[in-house]
Design brief:
It contains 11 helices and 12 strands. With 336 residues, the protein is α/β, with parallel strands linked by helices. This is ABC transporter, ATP-binding protein.
Length: 336
């Protein structure tokens, strides 16, 4: 929002100055015509033609500078790609084939602190959490409270500043990154949907699944209406899921986790935020039935669905306010 405001302000600043330049040119032509007329005379048609062309200068200058600015903005993407290719270290996947990491799903945060940059405040401030294997946990809190930062730290997307995160007592820093992430099923807030068939979108990240398994998961996830609308599992989905509702995109993302099966921990980041209460409960029931042993950690703003979880964790300002059963009342700070 701040960048957009700056862009609009800069555009207005430039537009005013271009208008002043165009008016100055028109005035200069008019004054020159008057002086020339007093000295030798001038063709009025030529004067009118010159002024007409001068009046179009504002639009031409705006178009020229607009094209230049758009080119500069697009080149930022090229610069970032080049930076990723030259300056960002590749993730080390050595040992991926040799190391087997099988754990029950117990997650422990011991005095974990994290910040996204050295000049920014702590996103996680001395977090201590213990989540048992097979437990269904809801994390609630206002925007910016640090909920998503827990997932970033758990998946080693951002290095922690201090403390330790363990899975069944094993530090995640000692586990090869591809092996670690393969143990998690992630349902993001904004699912990745690409142009292709529904079947192709459902089997992303899944190995050794056949069409009957996919059809069964789609049926129990109540995607029947979607399949009828687009023509079954072979029906085409537009780029970004433009022909799907937000809820349908999230259900597809949940189905991917169900099809993968071998996930010890399922991370759900606001995936049920656009679903009504009945569908929310159905999705949680699907995970419980098809992944009964998995630990489920769900970031949610849906307070009426907290009874579906074993434990509720309340967060604010990067700290844990409370960890307890859903029967306990939610604090005023979270509700406000």
């Amino acid at each position: 929002m701040r960048a957009q405001f700056s862009s609009i302000a800069a555009g207005q600043w430039l537009s005013i100055r271009l208008s002043i330049i165009a008016v100055s040119i028109v005035a200069a032509i008019a004054v020159s015509a008057v002086i020339q007329h007093q000295i030798t005379g001038v063709d009025s048609g030529l004067v009118a033609l010159a002024i007409t062309y001068a009046l179009s200068l504002t639009g031409l200058l705006n178009g020229l500078l607009g094209s230049f600015i758009e080119t500069e903005k697009e080149m930022v993407s090229v610069e970032r790609i080049e930076d990723y290719l030259t300056n960002v270290e590749m993730e080390d996947d050595r040992g991926e084939a040799e190391v087997a990491f099988d754990f029950a799903g117990r997650v422990q945060f011991d005095q974990v602190s994290l910040r996204y940059n050295s000049y920014l405040p702590l996103a996680l401030d001395n977090i201590n959490l213990s989540i048992n294997a097979g437990e269904k946990v809801a994390i609630v809190g206002r925007t910016g409270s640090g909920k998503s930062s827990l997932f970033q730290a758990l998946l080693r997307m951002i290095p922690i500043e201090s403390g330790k995160i363990t899975l069944d007592g094993v530090s995640i820093s000692s586990v090869p990154l591809p092996v670690l992430r393969r143990a998690f099923g992630v349902v993001p807030q904004h699912p990745f949907i690409f142009s292709g068939s529904l079947y192709e979108n459902l089997i992303v990240g899944c190995e050794h699944v056949d069409q009957s398994q996919v059809a069964n998961i789609a049926r129990v996830a109540h995607l029947d209406t979607l399949m009828t609308r687009i023509g079954g599992l072979d029906g085409q989905i537009d780029e970004g899921g433009k022909n799907l509702s937000f809820g349908e995109r999230q259900i597809i993302s949940i189905c991917r986790v169900l099809l993968a099966k071998c996930k010890q921990v399922v991370l759900i980041d606001e995936a049920t935020s656009h679903l009504d209460a009945a569908v929310h409960r159905r999705m949680m029931s699907l995970i419980s039935v098809h992944l009964p042993m998995a630990t489920v950690i769900c970031i949610t703003h849906v307070l009426h669905g907290l009874s579906d979880f074993d434990t509720v964790i309340e967060m604010a300002n990067g700290k844990v306010l409370r960890q307890g059963p859903p029967t306990e009342p939610i604090s005023h700070e979270i509700r406000s």
